[in-house]
């Protein structure tokens, strides 16, 4: 059922009812209560000055509670960070790459992993990259690439370019456990649109954040820690790891000590404003019944609507096409259209008032619960006008144009 009449009024500052914001897989609109959270952060700082951290830490715990609901892990130990990159760096720095110098990943990972692992490979770390497609067999192929020299496997729960869900992560987790390798799962494109659970992958590390479907904005990322995380000593470590002991005498020259739990993986001074905003948004989600199951139902319906409206355009496949190889349940929260003209289409849609994005040869259309069916249909109608212009321009000839660079 169309939820826009109920939800859109709560996003008045983003003017979601007046705009065609198909950026729901990237930057969703923030509910109006997010601004109240940012004001809360300012008022607490104005009142308490440097004593604000007690309140900030309590707010961070509220954020952890909200994230646990979407992780399907009510007791998860969560380290928080400004970005997934900050947290992945700490994870990588804790691996024994001298003894196990090999990392295994796929070629479908988001830039956080893609760029950093590529740079590590330039410095001599052995990085094995497995083709991400077909997604249905990715977990098995990653498991087959494991050996005794593998320190970790790093893989997404949902592929960010085409929204394909990666199944059988539980079997991959079992293979990692057998070989003594760590497993890190990037759940960023799952949380808030695909119900997620750590059941079956209890010994995995899970990284993600709220910039996308959870509407939390920047600065709200996490690293879910497995039970054995306290046995590792991250080389990249901030002074907040010893925040509770700052009043004690510090003895130079001794081994660096680590606390247990989330503080072990802490960084340094951060801006708590993002947590105040996130805590308010999580309260709003609870008040509006925006549970993982509800949001999944809305997403499947909206993406299904985009699918059907695109199919009705009957566009030649060499101009634009979508993946029809799986069931609707095999995809995450956006429609990825493959086209050699993806960048051109994105720019043309922007000129017509439709905000979407492109990655290489894929145009990505991301709905959100506050958008109406009429808005989604209008966006595809405008896309259809651009596609008809393209068909007239290129005729029956497949394009040889480049697909552009990946941002």
Helix-strand layout with pairing:
Layout: H1 4-7, E1 20-21, H2 33-48, H3 53-71, E2 77-81, H4 84-93, E3 102-106, H5 111-122, E4 126-130, H6 138-144, E5 150-156, H7 169-179, E6 182-186, E7 205-209, E8 221-225, H8 273-288, H9 292-313, E9 321-322, E10 335-338, H10 342-351, E11 354-355, E12 357-359, E13 362-365, H11 373-394
Parallel strand pairs: 1-11, 3-4, 3-5, 5-6, 6-7
Antiparallel strand pairs: 2-8, 7-8, 9-10, 10-13, 12-13
Helix pairs in contact: 2-8, 3-8, 6-7, 9-11
Order of helices and strands: HEHHEHEHEHEHEEEHHEEHEEEH
Can you tell me the residue ranges where pLDDT is under 50 for at least 5 consecutive residues?
399-407
Q: Strand order across the biggest sheet?
A: 2-8-7-6-5-3-4
Q: Describe the main β-sheet briefly.
A: 7 strands, mixed
Helix content: 25-40%
* Approximate shape: globular
Q: Approximately how much beta-strand content do the residues carry? A: 5-15%
Number of helices: 11
Mean pLDDT: 94
Which structural class do you get from the secondary structure elements?
alpha/beta
Q: Gyration radius, to the nearest Å?
A: 22 Å
Distance between the termini: 35 Å
Describe this structure in words.
The protein is α/β, with parallel strands linked by helices and 407 residues long. Helices cover 37% and strands 13% of the residues. It is built from eleven helices and 13 strands. It has helices at residues 4-7, 33-48, 53-71, 84-93, 111-122, 138-144, 169-179, 273-288, 292-313, 342-351, 373-394, and strands spanning 20-21, 77-81, 102-106, 126-130, 150-156, 182-186, 205-209, 221-225, 321-322, 335-338, 354-355, 357-359, 362-365. The chain has a seven-stranded mixed beta sheet, sandwiched between helices. It has a four-stranded antiparallel beta sheet with strand order 9-10-13-12. β12 and β13 form a beta hairpin. The longest helix is centred in the last third of the chain and has 22 residues, at 292-313. 46% of the residues are buried. Mean pLDDT is 94; it is low at 399-407.
């Amino acid at each position: 059922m169309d939820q826009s009449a109920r939800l859109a009024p709560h996003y008045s500052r983003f003017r979601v009812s007046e705009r065609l914001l198909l950026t729901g897989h990237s930057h969703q609109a923030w509910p109006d209560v997010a601004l109240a959270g940012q004001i809360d952060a300012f008022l607490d700082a104005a009142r308490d000055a440097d004593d604000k951290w007690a309140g900030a830490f309590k707010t961070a715990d509220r954020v952890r509670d909200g994230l646990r609901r979407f992780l399907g892990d009510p007791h998860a130990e969560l380290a928080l960070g400004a970005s997934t990159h900050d947290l992945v760096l700490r994870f990588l720095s804790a691996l024994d790459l001298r003894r196990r110098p090999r990392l295994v990943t796929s070629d479908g990972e988001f830039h956080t992993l893609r760029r950093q692992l590529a740079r590590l490979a330039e410095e001599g770390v052995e990085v094995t990259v497995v083709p991400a497609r077909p997604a249905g067999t990715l977990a098995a192929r990653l498991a087959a690439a494991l050996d005794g020299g593998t320190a970790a496997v790093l893989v997404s729960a949902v592929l960010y370019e085409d929204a394909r869900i990666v199944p059988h992560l539980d079997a991959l987790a079992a293979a990692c456990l057998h070989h003594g390798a760590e497993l890190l799962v990037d759940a960023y494109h799952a949380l808030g649109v695909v119900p997620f659970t750590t059941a079956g992958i209890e010994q995995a590390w899970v990284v993600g954040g709220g910039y996308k479907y959870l509407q939390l904005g920047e600065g709200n990322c996490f690293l879910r820690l497995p039970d054995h995380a306290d046995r590792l000593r991250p080389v990249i470590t901030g002074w907040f790891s010893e925040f509770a002991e700052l009043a004690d005498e510090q003895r130079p020259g001794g081994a660096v000590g680590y606390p247990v739990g989330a503080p072990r993986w802490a960084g340094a001074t951060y801006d708590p404003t993002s947590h105040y905003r996130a805590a308010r948004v999580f309260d709003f989600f609870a008040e509006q019944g925006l549970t993982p199951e509800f949001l999944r139902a809305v997403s499947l319906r909206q993406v299904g609507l985009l699918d059907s409206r695109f199919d009705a355009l009957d566009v030649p496949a060499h101009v634009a096409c979508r993946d029809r190889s799986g069931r609707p349940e095999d995809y995450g929260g956006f429609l990825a259209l493959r086209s050699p003209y993806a960048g051109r289409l994105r720019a043309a849609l922007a000129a017509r008032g439709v905000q979407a994005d492109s990655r290489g040869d894929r145009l990505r259309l991301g709905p959100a619960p506050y958008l109406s069916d009429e808005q989604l249909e209008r966006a595809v109608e405008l896309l259809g006008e651009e596609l008809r212009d393209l068909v007239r321009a290129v005729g029956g000839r497949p394009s040889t144009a480049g697909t552009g660079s990946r941002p």
